Automatic annotation (TrEMBL):
It comes from Brachybacterium fresconis. Residues 195-272 form the Transglutaminase-like domain. The lineage of its organism: Bacteria, Bacillati, Actinomycetota, Actinomycetes, Micrococcales. It comes from the Bacteria. InterPro entries: Bac_transglu_N, Papain-like_cys_pep_sf, Transglutaminase-like. This is Transglutaminase-like putative cysteine protease. SUPFAM superfamilies: Cysteine proteinases. PANTHER family: BLR2979 PROTEIN, BLR5614 PROTEIN-RELATED. It holds the Pfam family Bact_transglu_N.
Amino acid sequence: MSENPLPMIPLRTEDDTAAEAVDYRVHHLTSYHYAKPVSRNYGRAHVEPRATPHQRVLSHEVVVDPSPARLTAHTDFYGNSSTYLLVDDLHERLDVHSHAHVTVSERRYGAEAMSRPWEQCAPDHWGQLLPAEGVDFLHPSPRVPTLTAARELSETVFTPERSIGECLAALTALIHTDFTYDSDATTVTSTLEDVLAARHGVCQDFSHVGVAAVRAAGLAARYVSGYLRTAPSAEGALGTQPAGEMIGSAASHAWLSVLVPGAGWVDIDPTNRTFVDQRFVTTAWGRDYGDVPPLKGIVVGPPGATSTLDVAVGVVPVPSEAAPAE
């Protein structure tokens, strides 16, 4: 492991004063361009920010161009909101816009909870109010199977009696140090085995590695999708990712969340080697990427109707007084 200092755990003390919440305008554009006109498009988008203990959703709207024949909302078992769309006319492009206004609060965790040995975060220590959905996040899932390489990685981090806070900081640092961010190395069909072997990938891959390591230790971990704070562009429209910005801030992002008794779900981002804070906007969570892709669907068209995909994301802070009245 790296000799560099581990990520700092955001602990709460009695003397702490909570930082002010941050308001964001979020704009996510997914744009498909087809080589030949297609006749029908079915899609489901996980692009709506969700309400959490650290996040308030003040407004949200999905706009589809061309105008859809159907646009409906759905809430899944994990509480994620998704949007179903149907475009039923000939079209050569499809633009899906998500506009949201959210407020993100500071995350801090109790020192006692984060200093307990990681073994005390197993289900036997969850207490009588066992989170029903937490059981799903203990077991292998389609994109996070049980692998020897993941278990070996887990064993280097989850050593006997080590505090859960230190384990999560060490896991974040280990993945960030030992894996190389490379947007050309993987696709959405790449497997966890591929990523563990090549040690290259993107935020989705690193989140799967982290989830696999935590589950290998017998703890609950879930895959989280969302966005990172971006810098405003020169035109004031979608955000950009200038030098020095966090990795993944110009597109949808992913990280993982671990269940810690007494603290709740603790989120870590191995791509940027940090605990999740007010720079992050959460949209959805599930067992792995397959549960909550930003947009998936089926296109009906002639042979050779290939497509190109463009994605742009802006998560720009705005003064709280600019918020519309509720």
